[in-house]
Amino acid sequence: MAASHGRSRSSWPNGVSLAVRSGARARSEGLVLGGDATITDTVNLIVQRRSARLTSREREVLALVAAGTSNKGIARELQVSPNTVKFHIAAILGKLDAATRAEAVVAALRRGELSL
After folding, report:
1. Mean pLDDT, the chain, as a whole number?
2. What fold is seen in the domain 56-111?
3. Cα-based distances in Å from 54 to 11, 58, 112
4. What does the alpha-carbon distance between residue 108 and residue 63 come to, in Å, rounded to a whole number?
5. Backbone angles phi, psi at 32, to 5 degrees
6. I need a surface site. Which of 14, 18, 35, 78 has the fewest CB within 10 A?
7. What CA dihedral angle connects 18, 19, 21 and 22, to 10 degrees?
8. Rounded Cα gap, residues 4 and 19, in angstroms
9. How is the chain split into domains, by residue range?
């Protein structure tokens, strides 16, 4: 591993090991910085993105998701296109670091961004 510089991954400080594990994900999310940016810069961007608060519209969408409403139903309720709903849900999943709609609801409840 070229990035290890002779140290095992487990011996690196937490931020660096997080960055090593998150590098591919950061690239896939378009968060990798160019030029003189360090791996810590990338981690900081990931942390900032993950700690971002949901917008009022995203909370509205998530409340409908929590109620079991489909994307089409959410689109009808909010008078937007189903593609707009997909965009909002993708943003919600990213901000809450959730893989599924159910995980997003649980994460939002835990963070106090949603109440049922």
Report:
1. 76
2. Arc Repressor Mutant, subunit A (1.10.10)
3. 35, 6, 11
4. 10
5. -75, 130
6. 35
7. 110
8. 12
9. 10-50, 56-111
Quick one: pLDDT band at residue 52, thresholds 50, 70, 90? Answer: confident
For residue 91, is pLDDT > 60?
yes
Q: What is the DSSP letter of 68?
A: T
pLDDT in tens, 2-51: 444 444 444 444 444 444 444 445 455 555 455 666 777 666 555 555 55
Q: How many CA atoms lie within 13 A of 28 on its CB side?
A: 6
Give the HSE-up count for residue 115: Cα atoms under 13 Å, Cβ half-sphere: 1
Number of other CB atoms surrounding residue 63 within 10 Å:
16
- Which two three-digit tokens encode residue 17? 């090991």
Residue 43 · residue 19 · CB < 8 Å: yes
